[in-house]
Design a protein that fits this description.
By secondary structure, this protein is mainly α. About 75% of the residues lie in helices and about 0% in strands.
Length: about 140
């Protein structure tokens, strides 16, 4: 979502408001289509909404990237802006998902285990981003 909004700002700065709006409308059409088609499907249920939400963002980002590429030469390091955060998020999700099983032996309330799992996930996320040098210092 941050890339979607950043690229939208770039398009607005390039005086391409109509293209930015068109891309958003196409993305929102994808979202509405997914919601309509998937929420009623028992296989997806409410997850159809989330799928539509994420697909909408991806479609908007791709369309914005294409529109910007036609106007200016923009060198984007997709490894830094996509691969590293996706990898760190995957590891964070795994840590947050499996930490309640590890904490099972502790005699604490389920709500405390939940918040502790969130904290563990956050620490793992920041630690992994630090390890792969995703933070830039100037």
């Amino acid at each position: 979502m941050s890339l979607e909004h950043t690229f939208s700002g770039i398009l607005n700065g390039l005086n391409k408001q109509i293209a930015a709006t068109r891309n958003r409308l196409i993305g929102l059409g994808v979202q509405v289509g997914c919601i309509y088609a998937l929420i009623g499907n028992p296989r997806f249920g409410i997850n159809g909404f989330f799928l539509g939400f994420f697909l909408s963002g991806i479609v908007i980002f791709i369309l914005d990237n294409i529109t910007i590429g036609r106007k200016v030469k923009l060198k984007v390091d997709f490894k830094d802006i996509l691969l590293k955060p996706i990898l760190a998020s995957s590891i964070m999700l795994a840590a947050a998902h499996y930490s309640p099983y590890i904490l099972k032996g502790l005699i604490i309330k389920d709500s405390a285990k939940f918040f502790l799992s969130l904290g563990i996930g956050g620490v793992v996320y920041v630690a992994f981003l630090s390890i792969i040098k995703a933070f830039r210092t100037t």
